[in-house]
Design goal:
Layout lengths: L6 E4 L5 H12 L3 E6 L2 H13 L5 E5 L5 H14 L5 E4 L7 E2 L1 H6 L14 H7 E2 L2 H27 L5 E5 L19 H8 L6 H16 L13 H20 L4 E6 L6 H7 L10 E3 L2 E3 L2
Parallel strand pairs: 1-2, 1-4, 2-3, 4-7, 7-8, 8-9
Antiparallel strand pairs: 5-6, 9-10
Helix pairs in contact: 3-6, 6-8, 6-9, 8-9
This protein binds NADP nicotinamide-adenine-dinucleotide phosphate.
């Protein structure tokens, strides 16, 4: 099968890493469905690429939290292409809201808190995790990926070389603890998430339910959850765990998760275009395969 007849879907692709991934996939000859939850933002992004000569980019609406929207995308791919070769689960939410009282108190403008401008300690003071922001984060970064993947799996199974790329984050790595902040201070939970032989989607869901429960009770720290970007961290830890569960189940696919680096999409592309027999069930920190 030549590249020219590969079909890909990228979620949350109207901007950022998703948009760049679309551009690079299209440039490699893949026909790409640019998806976005907002019809206007999605069509504008698609038009921009079409005007740049990428006629192999088409738009379809997709809100990863909306079952009907996912079904509609699956129908579109089934009708147009009959199969899916590459799924890039990119859409993401940060799980945080700025604490405007603190910002006002320190006389700081929100734009100064854009990613990359401040240290994590600064962020911890200014950004807060509410129950609503955490739920939105888990529903997007974890359940969204789970739901989209489940519905698109039959189409991926129609492909001779299916690839799934879950765009994760270094905050989802379990074993960086020796050098920096412990990603999951609670040892039992850390072991549970790392125990690939016995891990199931049910267990991951249970861990996420416990997280939301402890957040509601204001008992995250005492129960050993990561306190730096708590919802985002557990969403990406769970995503990495899910990637391994899937890879163990679907042996003929290449299913990996990646930490893209700060705004770098080339690794998502690398994983999307892996050759047959390439790595699966791996976590890439940029170009290096890391322990989970
Ligand atoms: N940028 C980095 O440095 C970095 C580092 C590590 C990991 N990552 C990961 O890389 C991925 C992309 O990050 P980014 O920096 O490109 O983020 P971004 O610029 O904020 O883009 C996020 C995309 O996700 C979409 N989205 C959010 N909720 C959605 C939903 N329910 N359904 C469909 N789409 C939804 C957004 O749509 P709207 O425009 O409508 O909001 C947007 O298109 C994320 O998973 C992120 O966690 C990024």
């Amino acid at each position: 099968m030549g590249d020219a007849c590969k079909y890909a879907v990228v979620t949350g692709a109207n901007k950022g890493i998703g948009f760049e991934t679309i551009k690079q996939l299209a440039n490699s000859g893949v026909t790409v469905v640019l998806t976005a939850r907002d019809e206007k933002r999605g069509t504008e992004a698609t038009s921009l690429l079409n005007e740049q000569g990428f006629s192999n980019v088409v738009f379809h609406q997709l809100d990863v939290q909306d079952a009907q929207s996912i079904e509609s995308l699956a129908k579109f791919v089934q009708t147009q292409y009959g199969r899916l070769d590459i799924l890039v689960n990119n859409a993401g939410a940060s799980g945080m809201v700025p604490d405007e009282d603190v910002l006002r108190a320190i006389n700081m403008d929100l734009v100064d808190w854009l990613p990359g401008r401040k240290t994590f300690d600064d962020i911890r003071v200014v950004m807060k995790t509410t129950y609503e922001s955490a739920k939105l984060c888990l529903d997007t970064n974890y359940h969204g990926v789970e739901n989209v993947t489940e519905v698109l799996l039959p189409l991926l199974q129609n492909s001779p070389s299916p690839r799934i790329v879950n765009v994760s984050s270094r905050r989802g790595a379990l074993n960086i603890s020796k050098t920096i902040i412990l990603r999951m201070p609670n040892e039992e939970r850390r072991k549970e998430l790392g125990d690939i032989e016995n891990l199931t989607e049910y267990k991951i869901d249970e861990i996420l339910q416990n997280f939301l429960h402890d957040l509601k009770q204001d008992s995250l720290e005492v129960n050993g959850w990561q306190m730096m970007l708590p919802a985002y961290s557990i969403s990406k830890l769970s995503l990495n765990a899910y990637t391994r569960v899937l890879a163990r189940k679907y042996l003929k696919m290449c299913i990996n998760c990646v930490h893209p680096g700060i705004s770098d999409c080339s690794l998502s592309l690398f994983c999307a275009l892996l050759p047959d027999g390439g790595p699966t069930g791996c976590y890439f920190d940029r170009t290096v395969v890391f322990e989970f």
